[in-house]
Write a structure and sequence with these properties.
Strand content: 25-35%
Largest sheet: 8 strands, mixed
Shape: globular
Bound molecules: zinc ion
Number of domains: 2
Number of strands: 17
Number of helices: 11
Low-confidence stretches: 387-395
CATH class of the largest domain: Alpha Beta
Oligomer: single chain
CATH architecture of the largest domain: Alpha-Beta Barrel
Structural class: alpha/beta
Distance between the termini: 55 Å
Helix content: 10-25%
Length: 395
């Protein structure tokens, strides 16, 4: 190396750089060399081969999506890994129950292993997985085969990080209690968390919550469907009690499980998701969900700050999925150079999943680094504000 050779391959200069543990931010530079974060400090641009001006931008660890659906061509809900995730700022994602023990081998071979972004999953307790949402995967309770789920989890620790049960009445019928009990037992046997999809459960939420243990995850905490977290507009005391015991709540927007009329009062009462997730799928990635950054923009519009949002799309989902051990979800010197730079975009009409809309500024990924490599971004799939209403109809 000559005396004048730049020390860094790339410097993201002058952005608002977030600490993913605390959500605190400072305006500084982030230098990348090879696949690592070389340095975080002001004044690094002079020593860079390439400089990207990030003034006025948010510089985050690469986003980690804690709940999505990626298994196209086998499952009707599988969304594309790159176009709907990586190219929209997500560098690691957890497939939440699209895959069951009987379809896992195909998921591993055709989807997860070849994917550019890091994929893990919560294995559906039904061997069928979520192949077709029209036919509940546990309507035949015999499809819950603990030995099969445990065998797949044991053989694939790099991939399986938990289990998933959908507890809606159209999935479990009136069998929810024994099915949940068996799912809790098998996840305890594996030493992994259980994710529980709520919204139209056969009984009110407290009956479900009282069965859950620390580390289990309630998906769709802001669902507008019956038996959610609110009663008369107030977050149920049983919900706070479950959180105090260590039960986690994630937002999992999805095609039908984010209602602004639930999220807004819950946020006003200080009840935030432990993990902010989009529940992106083939049914919603062209709206009403679009992607994780749009889910972030919606919760920001409802009152959460970036300081509150950032840990919930980086360090928290990385911890939940064990991906923190591989350096995902944090932005530190010496760590992997997974970075997502977001910009405030123009206002747009943003729909929820219950027929409501807000007009609010979106967030747009401008730079995405995966292990130091710049990956392309794709434009938002919604419509500008001057075509108001169209975005809602697209859902
Ligand atoms: Zn889902």
């Amino acid at each position: 190396m000559t005396e004048n050779a730049p020390r860094y391959d790339l410097v993201l200069a002058g952005g608002e750089v977030f600490d993913s543990a605390t959500g605190a931010s400072q305006v500084t530079d982030v230098a990348v060399t090879g696949d690592r974060i070389a340095r975080i400090a002001p004044g690094l641009a002079a020593d860079a081969r390439e400089v990207v001006d990030c003034a006025g931008r948010y510089v985050l660890p690469g986003l980690v999506e804690g709940h999505t659906h990626i298994f196209a061509e086998v499952s009707k809900v599988g969304a594309p890994p790159d176009e709907a995730h990586l190219h929209r700022g997500v560098v690691a994602a957890c497939d939440a129950g699209t895959v069951g023990a009987s379809t896992f081998a195909a998921f591993e071979r055709y989807v997860a292993a070849p994917a550019k972004l890091r994929l893990v999953n919560f294995l559906n307790v039904s061997v069928l997985g979520l192949i077709d949402f029209r036919f509940g995967e546990l309507m035949n309770p015999d499809t819950l085969v603990p030995e099969d789920a445990l065998a797949v989890a044991a053989a694939n620790p790099h991939r399986v990080r938990g289990f998933k049960i959908r507890l809606s009445e159209d999935v479990v019928g009136h069998n929810w209690r024994p099915l949940l009990k068996r799912s809790l037992e098998l996840s305890a046997d594996a030493g992994l968390p259980l994710m529980i999809h709520i919204g139209e459960t056969p009984e009110p939420l407290p009956a479900v919550l009282e069965m859950l243990r620390p580390g289990d995850v309630v998906a769709h905490c802001y669902t507008g469907k019956p038996y959610g977290i609110l009663a008369d507009g107030t977050v149920l005391p049983e919900v706070y009690a479950a959180r105090e015991r260590g039960v986690l709540f994630e937002s999992a927007h999805g095609k039908s499980n984010l209602s602004f009329k639930v999220a807004e009062p819950a946020i006003a009462q200080g009840f935030y998701p432990d993990v902010i997730t989009s529940d992106t799928s083939a049914r919603n990635w062209r709206g009403p969900v679009f992607d994780l950054v749009t889910s972030m923009a919606k919760l920001r519009a409802l009152g959460m700050t970036m300081e509150q949002i950032v840990p919930r799309v980086t360090s928290a989902p990385a911890r939940l999925t064990g991906l923190d051990a591989e350096g995902y979800g944090s932005l530190v010197e010496g760590g992997p150079a997974h970075v997502t730079v977001l910009a405030d975009a123009d206002e747009a009409v943003l729909p929820d999943a219950a027929g409501n809309q807000i007009t609010a500024p979106r967030l747009e990924p401008e730079v995405v680094l995966l292990a130091g490599e710049r990956v392309p971004t794709v434009p938002w799939r919604g419509l500008p504000t001057d075509q108001a209403g169209a975005a809602g109809r697209a859902s």
